[in-house]
Amino acid sequence: MLIHKAHPDAMVITLDGIQSDLVAQSHPHRLEEIGVLFTSMKAGGVTDVIFAGALTRPKMNPMLFDTEMQVIAPRLVQAMAMGDDGLLRTVIDIFEEQGFHVRGVGDLMPELVAGDDLALGSDPTDRDEADIARAAQILRGIAPLDLGQGCAVAGGQCLGIETVQGTDALLRFVGETPARYRPDGRGGVYVKAAKTGQDLRMDMPTIGPKTVASVAAAGLSGMVVEAGCVLILDRAATLKAASEAGIFLQARAL
Questions:
Q1: Residues 86, 146 contacting (CB under 8 angstroms)
Q2: pTM of the full structure
Q3: Residue 157 near residue 149, CB atoms below 8 Å
Q4: Do residues 140 and 126 touch, judged by C-beta distance below 8 A?
Q5: How confident is the model at residue 14 (pLDDT cuts 50, 70, 90)?
């Protein structure tokens, strides 16, 4: 929605089976008919492509495959056995082979990217800093497995890592963790970062007011995101939510 508002003349494409708030303003297409999609984009003068929105893996009906999708499908099936980054790299390759330039949201709207000047709330305590370092270590460790982009740690103990269920599910799970697993029954940090070597043109880590609310509801002391690699949606509301919740929110190199 933010990209559409900033670039109202851009062609908006939605895919059948993938939820979007822009269906009414879009050119709808079936993923099974990707050849038709490519033809439509080229006819519309599209040169640059931005992928935005929640990542889903829609079900496809092989009976509806056009000639182009019949050629591409084996690559997609193989890529779907990988993690999200592996699949998305394949999608990028497919579009670039058609002559399109795939760009990231951060390239188009750099004001959304968290910079290292972001430091809201009280300074993390020494224990918080140790937990931040531990969470970053865990994320680096699981990066080769192409899993999630977030990790919660308290007192050096990993309370959870983000998987396919997403950030909200992770933080809800953390909030349900018995107090005995945390020092003083509360505290801990949530760290959000890009996977090592991740192509940030698609599925760039993202936070917003809802993330802040979930961090606070989970009883964590604060959140740290990787500077230059995480989008902040509705920055004003996100910072306000963090301030009102009394948690720290920082961006830094990890």
A1: yes
A2: 0.86
A3: no
A4: no
A5: confident
